[in-house]
Design a protein that fits this description.
By secondary structure, the chain is mainly α. The chain folds into 2 domains: 334 residues, no CATH class; 119 residues, no CATH class. The chain is 57% helix and 6% strand. The chain is built from 24 helices and 5 strands. Helix 2 crosses helix 3 and helix 4 crosses helix 15. The longest helix is centred in the N-terminal third of the chain and has 25 residues.
């Protein structure tokens, strides 16, 4: 059995409180769900769902499959599309409190763990839009909960459940490898390494490998495109952060007021008097942190690691204050400060304000509009800017398309510079009678050109580049979004290109860009 230095405190049942916090968070998402518009990546994942496969250039298949099933069963509204992410957020908030309960928390600590999770700025945004990131946080949190259950119960058969969670999580996002690596390191560095002498952990690993294997085979058959994607994104797109900058982003993205909670939690995991096996989760965080800072990764890639730290921190604070009768006023001040501080930052992550008022609000708080990618920034931060301009772009392309002579309109294709443009044409262009779009960006390249290419409407790009492939290139329109979209999407010319200089297959091979 797992070593035990002191008796674990008897946990209280705080399920009612956890349910209330999770449902209030969901209500906040639902009342703001369509305040802005479609997010860039949502357009792409929906397109991927229309081309089901065991893999894609930049992600595994689960996010596309869920998008396809959701739309087939319930329709394609913005609310329906985003609801799975909202539900993932509900589950993560609830599980944060349940992890705290497994660690011996009373109802106060369970509620604080859930409240910390509910107010995290990066979580608020990731649980608001449809992407693989919401499910990634859920899979990490589920895995952490199972680890704690294994430590508490000593039941090695739970590694089978752990393997199932990891296998499904890897079919959602490759970054779950960081979680698995961290848990492996934690096992090696704690007495829980005894599990390596039993078959169950190896059977759990086999389950994870078997579930992930179809995607690995897809990668092999397609020349490992994700490796090329990661190299290009690291070299040309992602902003490189120093270790200190990366840590600073953790503090800001997880909300400065939660920083003492998760830092205390990290220390408590390593010094727990109740279960030394809890150190696994401490080492999981440290190992994932060290790997990510060496990979020029985006700061939010570490976001899924925090729910168990919130749980541990809440348990420690409860033990030092309420249970020992010390600093009781401080204990009751903690949730008040968390809630108030969380509400202050909500407009920066959820569309509760008119977009035009957001920059002024951010300036009043003294917060800059940073970006995780190497792009010029406009009036809005990138996560909000990517929710604007798509309807205007599609409407302008439709105007150009309908202005063509009937014989050209019947065979005209549309080309976008990135998957956001192409995805917007595919989803929003239906009501305008537009054909499917082509693009060389990420998986759109693998789907190939749509149409003959004899007449092509091109969104943006350099006309001199276009003239290398076409005899005649003329501007026929301009996309404008009023400064609310990303600057590289604003004031973009719309070209009509005619007269291919070479076969479309030859030209298509030069359009590929994975990043």
């Amino acid at each position: 059995m797992t070593d035990q230095v002191a008796s674990r405190p008897r946990a209280q049942d705080g399920r009612g409180l956890l349910t209330i916090i999770a449902l209030l968070s969901a209500a906040l998402h639902l009342v703001t769900i369509d305040a802005y518009g479609w997010f860039r990546d949502e357009l792409y994942y929906i397109a991927c769902g229309e081309h089901l496969a065991f893999g894609y250039v930049d992600h595994p298949p689960l996010v596309a499959l869920i998008a396809r099933v959701t739309r087939e069963l319930f329709g394609g509204s913005l609310l329906v599309t985003r609801l799975p992410a909202v539900l993932a957020g509900v589950a993560v908030i609830y599980l944060s409190g349940r992890i705290a309960r497994e660690m011996g928390a009373g109802w106060w600590a369970q509620g604080v763990a859930a409240l910390c999770t509910a107010i995290v700025p990066v979580y608020l945004f990731l649980f608001h839009i449809y992407s693989m990131n919401a499910f990634d946080i859920l899979f990490w949190t589920l895995g952490a909960w199972v680890v704690v259950r294994i430590v508490n119960t000593g039941n090695p058969k739970l590694w089978l459940l752990f393997g199932l969670i990891c296998g499904l999580g890897l079919q959602n996002k490759h970054s779950l490898l960081f979680f698995g690596f961290g848990v492996f390191v934690g096992l090696l560095l704690t007495p829980e390494r005894r599990h390596f002498r039993e078959p169950w952990i190896w059977l759990g690993g086999a389950i994870a490998v078997l579930l992930f294997l179809p995607h690995v085979i897809w990668q092999m058959r397609n020349g490992w495109p994700t490796a090329e994607f990661v190299r290009n994104a690291t070299a040309f797109k992602n902003v490189a952060l120093s270790p200190l900058e990366f840590f600073g982003e953790q503090v800001m993205q997880m909300h400065p007021l939660t920083f003492p909670v998760w830092l205390i939690g990290l220390v408590w995991l390593f010094r727990s008097r109740y279960r030394s096996g809890y150190r696994i989760l401490g080492w999981m965080y440290v190992a994932a942190f060290l790997v990510l800072i060496t990979q020029s990764s985006k700061a939010y890639y570490l976001a899924p690691a925090y729910p168990p730290l919130f749980a541990a921190g809440a348990v420690a604070i409860e033990s030092w204050t309420l249970r020992r009768g010390r600093l009781r006023p401080v204990a009751w001040l903690v949730p008040v400060l968390l809630l108030a501080g969380g509400l202050v930052l909500v407009p920066l992550t959820l569309p509760v304000l008119p977009a035009e008022r957001l920059p002024g609000y951010a300036r009043a708080l003294g917060i800059g509009m940073g970006a995780a990618e190497r792009h010029e920034m406009g009036a809005l931060p990138q996560h909000f800017a990517d929710m604007h301009g798509w309807e205007e772009m599609v409407a302008e392309v439709a105007r150009v398309h309908h202005s063509l002579p009937p014989e050209e309109r019947a065979k005209a294709g549309i080309y976008g510079q990135n998957y956001g443009q192409a995805g917007a044409i595919d989803l929003l262009g239906k009501k305008h009678g537009l054909p499917k779009a082509s693009s060389g960006h990420n998986n759109y390249f693998l789907w190939g050109p749509q149409g003959s290419g004899e007449v092509l409407i091109i969104i943006g790009g350099d006309p001199e580049d276009h003239r290398q492939a076409f005899e005649d290139v003329r501007q026929a329109g301009e996309v404008r979004c009023g400064g609310l979209c990303m600057p590289y999407e604003d004031n973009q010319p719309v070209w009509v290109a005619r007269g291919l200089k070479a076969p479309i297959e030859q030209i298509w091979s030069m359009t590929k860009h994975y990043d």
